[in-house]
């Protein structure tokens, strides 16, 4: 089914309910909730280019440090040291 066909079908269904006030009220509430969910989903999925770049840079830095540690060029913190650092 194409988008246009789907739109036509939905509109035909709505028109068929036009004389039923209770059905129209239910439809209006449903559509409002659906719109809110869609807006919330869209906001949750949005991530700015800067945020993506920051995450990628953090991953690159972690991999670089891991490589240096494997080569014996740096010593990584132990989990205990890391937790102690977080606490204080």
Give the biggest sheet: none
Strand tally is 0
Tally of individual domains:
2
Instruction: Determine the number of helices (DSSP H or I, runs of at least 4 residues).
Output: 4
Helical residues, percent? over 70%
Overall SS class? mainly alpha
Any idea what the radius of gyration is?
27 Å
* Coarse shape: elongated
Give the N-to-C terminal Cα separation: 60 Å
Explain what you see.
The chain is an all-alpha fold and 88 residues long. It has two domains: 3-45; 49-87, no CATH class. Helices cover 80% and strands 0% of the residues. It has four helices and no strands. The protein has helices at 3-16, 21-45, 49-70, 79-87. The relative contact order is 0.04.
Task: Compose a concise summary of this entry.
By secondary structure, the protein is mainly alpha-helical. It has helices at 3-16, 21-45, 49-70, 79-87.
């Amino acid at each position: 089914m194409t988008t246009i066909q789907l739109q036509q079908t939905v509109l035909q269904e709505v028109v068929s309910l036009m004389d039923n006030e209770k059905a129209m009220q239910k439809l209006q509430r449903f559509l409002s909730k659906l719109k809110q969910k869609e807006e919330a989903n869209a906001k949750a999925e949005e991530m700015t280019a800067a945020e993506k770049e920051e995450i990628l840079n953090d991953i690159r830095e972690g991999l670089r440090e891991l490589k240096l540690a494997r080569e014996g060029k740096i010593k990584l913190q132990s989990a205990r040291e890391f937790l102690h650092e977080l606490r204080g």
